[in-house]
Amino acid sequence: MWGLENSWRCGAGCVALLGLLTACDAGSTNSAAPQASAASTAAVPASTPAAVPPAVQGPRTAKWIDLQVGECLADPPPTDPSVVEVSVVDCAIPHAAEVYLRTDVEVNAAIADVADQRCGAGLTQYSGQAAAGPLAMTYLIDSNQDRTSANPLPSTVICLLQAANGGPLTGSARR
C-alpha cells in the first residue's frame, strides 16, 4: 500500500511540474515580447493601486436651488420660473455657466441691488476678474422663501458666471 501512495504522489508531482513547465514555455514562444524583470516588479508593491486619472463625469440633473459653488451648468441659467431643474456637467467640458457664490439675502433688502453688489464682489474674489472682462455675471434667487418665519435671511442668491460673448466656457474660472 505504501508503494501505491508514493507512486500517486509522484504522479501528481509530475503533473504539477509539467503544468508549470508548460506555463513557463508559453511565455517564451515570442522572444520579441518584453519581459518584466524582477527589479521592475519588486519596485511596486502588489497592494498599491495604480493611479487612475479622474474620469469626466456625465451630466446629472439637479434642482437649481441646490446648486453649489464650483458646479457648472450645461445650459444658461433658466429664466422661466417654471423651470426647476438644470443639467450639471463637469467643468472640464464646455459649459454655459459656473456657480461661483451662494449668498443669503435679508427679508427687506432691495434684492436686485444686493444681488448685483454681492455677485460682483464674489466674482472678483472667485476668479480674479471683474464682470466687465471676459466674464459676465448673472444670478438666480431661490423660490424657497418663507418671509413669515423669524429667519432674517430667508432667500439665497446663487451667482453664476458666463462668457461675456455668450460662448461656452471650458474649465473652472476659480483661481
SSE-based structural type = alpha+beta
- C-alpha Rg (nearest Å): 31 Å
* Sheet having the most strands: 6 strands, antiparallel
How far do the termini sit from each other?
82 Å
Order of helices and strands: HHEEEEHEE
What is the share of helical residues?
25-40%
Overall mean pLDDT stands at: 73
Approximately what portion of the residues adopt beta-strand conformation? 15-25%
Number of strands: 6
Given the C-alpha coordinates, what overall shape results? globular
Q: Which residue ranges are poorly predicted, with pLDDT under 50 across at least 5 consecutive positions?
A: 1-50
Strand order of the largest sheet: 1-3-2-4-6-5
Number of helices: 3
List keywords for this structure.
3 helices; alpha+beta; six-stranded antiparallel beta sheet
What does this protein look like?
- The chain has 175 residues and is α+β, with helices and mostly antiparallel strands.
- It has a domain at 60-163.
- Helices cover 27% and strands 21% of the residues.
- The chain is built from 3 helices and 6 strands.
- It has helices at residues 2-27, 38-42, 111-127, and strands at 60-63, 72-73, 85-89, 97-105, 135-141, 155-163.
- Strands 1-3-2-4-6-5 form a 6-stranded antiparallel sheet, with helices on one face.
- The longest helix has 26 residues, at 2-27.
- It is globular and about 45 Å long.
- Mean pLDDT is 73; it is low at 1-50.
List the helices and strands and how they pair.
Elements: H1 2-27, H2 38-42, E1 60-63, E2 72-73, E3 85-89, E4 97-105, H3 111-127, E5 135-141, E6 155-163
Antiparallel strand pairs: 1-3, 2-3, 2-4, 4-6, 5-6
